[in-house]
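Lab notebook, bench 4. The sequencing result for the construct came back, and we need a structural model before the next group meeting so we can plan mutations. Quick request posted to the team channel:

Model the 3D structure of this chain.
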Amino acid sequence: MRVLIIEDDRLLSVQLKQGLERELFTVDVAATGEDGAHLGAEESYDAIILDLGLPDMDGLDILRQWRAADRNTPVLILTARGDWHAKLIGLNAGADDYLAKPFEIAEVAARLRALIRRAHGQASSVLRHGRLELDLAAAEARRDGQAIRLTAHEFKTLAYMMRHAGSIVSQAELTEALYAQDFVRDSNTIEVFIARLRRKLGADAIETVRGLGYRLGSS
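Done. Here's the predicted structure in token form:
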């Protein structure tokens, strides 16, 4: 799950980034409204955390710009403005959820997962495909009911593929989903994660579609 944090408070953004990465999110951070507005418009995110009190732009203006351009990425507003009137304005501007500071990282993570589930039409935090089951909230994987230990990157790779079950997923897509923008990306590592998943889940769990990418097997 790839998210963008738009927050000018450096300490808070670092705490959010580190906390969400522990919850197995891939996180990009923008410190200004201008940078955040650009990333939110041009990059593909599963959800965006948006602070309203940015130094160079009002967060609500950024949100209105995205919605006017039909950018429907789920947005969680994070702000010190805790009164009901500010909340109402934010939701009417197109926000999907609202959380006032101070907050707990666990609650932010839970709200993000709920927003992403709704965006994908999923009522549960558990993804299922054939004999595979992935509990996003508990970060647990099972096949035929048996628990399988996965590394963080293996888990995120499998989660992305299960969300796109039935579709061919390219190495480029997986690289974008797994790594933040400031990380030196190497698509060859995707091959390593796929190989590890096959060893743990079974050789038939992931198919290679020559020249295009990967697809979850039917079993």
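The first helix runs from residue 10 to 22.
Will bring this to the meeting.
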